[in-house]
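Lab notebook, bench 4. Still working through the backlog of constructs that have no structural model yet. Next entry is a single chain of 431 residues. Request: give me the structure tokens for it.
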Amino acid sequence: MIQLSNTINFAKDIDSKDALHTYRHQFYFPLLHGKQALYFTGNSLGLQPKTTQDAVLTELEDWATYGVEGHFHARNPWYSYHELLNESAAHIVGAEPAEVVMMNQLTVNLHLLMVSFYRPTPQRYKIICEAKAFPSDQYALESQVRINGYEPHDTIIEVSARGGEYCISHDDIYAAIDKHKDELALVIIGGVNYYTGQVFDMKTITQKAHEAGAYVGFDLAHAAGNIELKLHEWNVDFACWCTYKYLNSGPGSVAGAFVHKNHHHKNLPRLAGWWGHDKVTRFKMEKGFNPIPTAEGWQLSNAPIFSMAAHKASLAIFEEVGMEKLVAKSKLLKAYTEFVIADVNLQLGAQKGTLEIITPLNDQPGDYFGSGCQVSIVAHGYGKKLFEDLIANSVIADWREPNVIRIAPVPLYNSFEDIYRFGEVLLSIMK
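Model written out:
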């Protein structure tokens, strides 16, 4: 057990012993107010790997050189480009390569997958989700419900945090599943809640949902590249995620989708497109959709090469490091963040406002499954002014209404010294 200390010497010493410390030099850090920013918003947009520009330039050069023939003669042929990403992406989400495909954007993928896995009947039509899910998920659920002829207020069951709490009890999720088991069609939850940073026990939620006869899916926008995932082993039916947060693939970059292999050969309804059609007969241009018997069968259009090139560059770093090492460092970074914030509160004393971490702590007992990189903070007595002062001091954090500052110390490029400096800035502002 490491004895933590809120000192610059401790932070530099632990950085010097960190096997992943040099990876921060593989990323570009933004400048803010004339100096390199302390960047803690990898949960919103990850930093750019220095290899990304060359990866995209390669495809631009091949477009210039080959034109349309680049689909077959580019250095990374565009016709099958998405296949270059499947194995690495599968490692990140704990899947078999055939269960993963990179395509579209996150909410597009969520809609496409719900067409297959939300099949309401008069007996089974209800959906369970977490209250205060990311708005895009809420809108997707509402629209899918209405398209199927139901009303959201009667169909969508939101499990909320208990009074006075921020995080959702797993017991309450399981109780909701059991209560509605005879009319439940789908359970869909964000693997990591965007607001609190709470990680949900996806394994047990999946088990409970299946016992109730429902499908289960997860929005992994804040989970992929952040926490350990075992989608195949947990028997999750479907999942989707973006790649511009922890996966550092650029704003609006290509998203991912997972469909468990148990469903690949089922005649599930879906929205069809030619890139999901059998590869052998695709260019015969015939009527009659014959889906590829993998997750690729949910594709619609050919690959967005430039965003996939950026994603490929980032995936290479994840392959080199591995999620196990990233998660181990992340836990220590988060523990140090919690320690530094607690020390700032201690130094401020009772006469000042306080910083309350609403994300489950590393050693928090009870009904919470833990968290990943994110730390969500309520600054009692300070509000948004504290966030604005952080920006003025070259700290890039994230504000979420009504009163939460989110930071995410990311193990690939954040250091323990970053955390110490963050504490220094906090203390100077709040004094």
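Notes after review: The domain at 56-320 is CATH 3.40.640.10 (Aspartate Aminotransferase; domain 2). The chain has a mean pLDDT of 95. Flag for follow-up if needed.
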